[in-house]
């Protein structure tokens, strides 16, 4: 599925020349790509470290599982819930990196 989406984006942007919608998100991620990778990986680790108790049944869950089950799995099928969680994660980082981009903060190694 990822290859099909990549092929579709390639066709729209490079072959057909529809660049207006695609430039900004790719530019935002591209200017701080290592920062996005490092901080999103760190966030994934932290979400798996934090253990909370579910208010419904008192079960101990890691925060990532609690977020997934509370906000996505309740009303979506497992495959769709997983996709929605992943898209939400990417959009969260797009929003955070957009703040850095607007302020012209580029973290380089």
Describe this structure in words.
- This protein has one domain (26-102).
- Strand 1 and strand 2 (60-62) form a beta hairpin.
- The model has no long low-confidence stretch (mean pLDDT 91).
- It has a two-stranded antiparallel ribbon with strand order 1-2.
- It is flat, with a radius of gyration of 17 Å.
- It contains 5 helices and 2 strands.
- It is mainly alpha-helical and 109 residues long.
- The longest helix is centred in the last third of the chain and has 25 residues, at 78-102.
- The chain has helices spanning 2-15, 23-31, 33-49, 63-73, 78-102, and strands at 51-53, 60-62.
- 5% of the residues are buried.
Which terms would index this structure?
2 strands, 5 helices, 109 residues, two-stranded antiparallel ribbon, 6% strand, mainly alpha, flat
Coarse structural class = mainly alpha
Instruction: Determine the number of helices (DSSP H or I, runs of at least 4 residues).
Output: 5
- What is the average of the pLDDT values? 91
Total count of strands: 2
User: What Rg is obtained from the alpha carbons, in whole angstroms?
Assistant: 17 Å
Could you tell me the strand content as a percent range? 5-15%
| SSE order | HHHEEHH
Portion in helices: 55-70%
What's the short version?
This protein is mainly alpha-helical and 109 residues long. The chain has five helices and two strands, in the order H-H-H-E-E-H-H.
């Amino acid at each position: 599925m990822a290859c099909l989406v990549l092929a579709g984006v390639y066709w729209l942007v490079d072959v057909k020349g529809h660049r207006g919608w695609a430039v900004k998100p790719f530019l935002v991620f591209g200017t701080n790509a290592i920062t996005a990778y490092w901080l999103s990986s760190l966030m994934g680790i932290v979400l798996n470290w934090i253990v909370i108790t579910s208010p419904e049944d008192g079960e101990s869950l890691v925060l990532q599982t609690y977020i997934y089950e509370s906000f996505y799995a309740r009303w979506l099928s497992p495959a769709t819930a997983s996709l929605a969680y992943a898209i939400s994660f990417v959009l969260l980082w797009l929003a955070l990196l957009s703040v850095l981009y607007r302020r012209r903060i580029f973290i380089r190694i």
